TrEMBL record:
This is Diacylglycerol kinase. The chain crosses the membrane at residues 34-51, 96-117. It comes from the Bacteria. Belongs to the bacterial diacylglycerol kinase family. Keywords: ATP-binding, Cell membrane, Kinase, Lipid biosynthesis, Lipid metabolism, Membrane, Nucleotide-binding, Phospholipid biosynthesis, Phospholipid metabolism, Transferase, Transmembrane, Transmembrane helix.
Length: 126
């Protein structure tokens, strides 16, 4: 599809944002892991607010996990389109994309423990 004008066009940006939200809605509807990760992110953000903890690391960690889950879904769709039959390289691509989400999730858990656990223990103990 050709570009319909300047990169600074609000109309063009709004149209592109609509396509992006279509992708988010599709992934939310079709991917259970994305729904779980989204609700976990909202819970982490609520805890961050309740504990008055630094929000930036939590927000960035949540965005990383959700963004990688979106990319994982895109990789799976493209691999399925390009290689409908089982192929060892298709499996590598899908497994590596899933591993990226796993690594980010473990990192986000670490961030959550470092950022949220101390103020939580302070609230529970004090």
């Amino acid at each position: 599809m050709r570009s319909d004008g300047s990169a600074l066009s609000l109309k063009r940006w709004w149209r592109s944002a609509g396509f992006a939200w279509d992708g988010v809605r599709h992934v939310y509807r079709t991917q259970a892991n994305f729904r779980i990760e989204l609700w976990a992110a909202l819970l982490a953000l609520a805890c961050t607010w309740w504990l008055n903890a630094p929000a930036a690391p939590v927000i960035l960690s949540c965005a990383l996990v959700l963004g990688l889950e979106l990319l994982n879904t895109a990789v799976e769709a493209v691999v399925d389109l390009a290689s409908p039959a089982v192929h060892p390289l298709a499996r590598v691509a899908k497994d590596a994309a899933a591993a990226a989400v796993l690594v980010a999730s473990v990192g986000a858990l670490g961030v959550g423990l470092v950022v949220l656990l101390p103020p939580l223990l302070g609230r529970l103990g004090g």
